[in-house]
Write a structure and sequence with these properties.
It is built from 18 helices and ten strands. The termini are far apart.
Length: 441
């Protein structure tokens, strides 16, 4: 029998159950049909490599066997063959932290299709693990629509808007899986019960506030990382790949169209490269939650780094904030470099042009809020909103809806609601003006 078939069968037997030395040893003996003396040490090395970690892929175990010197010596010395093919049982195997989360048990691709109320071929089409969507000439057959915007700070922002069918599947995954996973205490973006206010509040009245910005946040999460996250939850490889496929996207080259004049040629080419790789799409219901949860290790490391420097740390999506008093003030300059290095090790790049070190002598702002003494909104933003409301009351709302928003009333209501979280007294004044707006014209 070809060596490749033996290695594949042995890899499946090692993965086929609980990762304990005894169980792995027994499965390996059954597969090869003989109690080779080197099997128990191989089982020990396998457990050391994979126990307590994210569920490995089949190819990862094959790579382990090919790199294991003891197995390679045995394979050259002994005549190995497969006595029994042990298929990997499809059952949930979450890591210890996820064992008590109330997650749906989905153990085969067929189970996943039924859970999503799809036929297997429909699941294959929506997950698009072979990347066929990028090769289709007809945009109507693709799962996303695209809008291109130039960032104020430079670069390209691509909004990937899922079409109704895949959007409904993503909402189901969000509701039934992602919403049941507890977030890191430092994560405040897109987390129920938290907001930009809870993100900024811990930094009010501090001597030094440091703000960092992560570059290309959603594209920084490749499909492989998302699929590994679902394996961490205990889903078998094929199920994790399907869930990851439903939640990620690769942008076809012809979706870009002509380059807007306000976007530079180099930035345009870089965006093509970044978004061509399968990633979390900005615009999908699942992306904010997946980004926040998948950045858990980043939050753990930065929280620990902040504590060691006498600082506190919070994150709102791609905005990182650190603050502290005398102890942090002494090391803040070096700290920014260390934090950026940690982010890089975790797969993120810091946009150094947007890094801000804010001491008490200047305005300390986070996410549009001032935190020098207490949490408050910038005076200019409040005055601008008040002016818009007054003009709406005097001249009609159409005179102020310069962006042509479909529901300008809801837009203004949301802005007043945001002010209400931070400055209730000011919000009452704004709401009184809002009530005088003649919405009939």
């Amino acid at each position: 029998m070809p060596a490749a078939a033996v290695i594949s069968a042995l890899a499946r037997s090692l993965m086929a159950g609980e990762p304990t030395v005894e169980s792995v040893h027994v499965r390996a003996m059954r597969t090869l049909g003989r109690p080779w003396r080197w099997l128990r040490p191989l089982a020990q090395r396998y457990v050391e490599a994979f126990a307590g970690r994210t569920r490995p892929r089949h190819r990862d175990v094959i790579r382990f066997l090919l790199g294991d010197a003891g197995f390679q010596r045995a394979a050259h010395r002994d005549k190995l063959s497969v006595a029994v093919w042990l298929p990997e049982p499809q059952r949930m195997r979450p890591v210890a932290a996820a064992a008590h989360w109330d997650l749906p048990a989905i153990e085969t691709v067929g189970d996943l299709a039924r859970w999503l109320s799809l036929q297997p071929d429909e699941l294959e089409w929506f997950a698009d693990l072979k990347g066929l969507g990028c090769k289709l000439d007809n945009p109507k057959l693709r799962h996303y629509r695209y809008r291109i915007r130039a960032k104020r700070s430079g670069g390209v922002r691509l909004i990937e808007i899922p079409k109704p069918q895949i959007k409904e599947l993503q909402r189901w995954i969000l509701r039934e899986i992602l919403d049941r996973i507890p977030p890191h205490p430092a994560a405040h973006g897109f987390v129920r019960g938290r907001s930009v206010a809870s993100f900024a509040a811990p930094h009010a009245g501090r001597q030094v506030v440091l703000r960092l910005d992560l570059q290309d946040f959603f594209p920084a999460f490749p499909a492989a990382r998302v699929q590994a996250f679902f394996r961490t939850l205990g889903y078998p490889e094929a199920v994790a790949d399907g869930l990851g496929g439903l939640c990620t996207n690769a942008v076809p080259g012809d979706a870009w169209g002509h380059r807007p004049l306000e976007i530079g040629a180099a930035e345009w080419r870089e965006a093509h490269t970044v978004y061509a790789r399968r990633h979390l799409p900005q615009g999908a219901p699942t992306s904010p939650a997946l980004a926040s949860i998948t950045a858990y290790r980043l939050d753990c490391r930065l929280s620990g780094l902040a504590r060691s420097a006498g600082a506190v740390y919070t994150r709102y999506a791609d905005d990182l904030a650190f603050s502290g008093d005398a102890e942090f003030r002494r090391v803040a300059g070096r700290f920014a470099s260390h934090a950026a290095a940690v982010a890089l090790e975790e797969g993120f790049s810091v946009n150094h042009h947007k890094t801000r070190m804010m001491r008490q002598g200047v305005r300390q702002s986070l996410a549009g809020m001032v935190v020098n003494r207490k949490l408050n909104l910038r005076r200019g933003d409040l005055e601008l909103l008040e002016a818009v409301l007054i003009n709406c009351a005097r001249r009609g709302p159409a005179s102020q809806n310069r962006e042509g928003l479909a529901d300008f009333r809801a837009h203004l209501t949301g802005r007043i609601g945001f002010v209400e979280m931070i400055n209730p007294a000011k919000a009452r004044r704004l709401r009184n003006i809002f009530e005088t707006i003649p919405w009939g014209r």
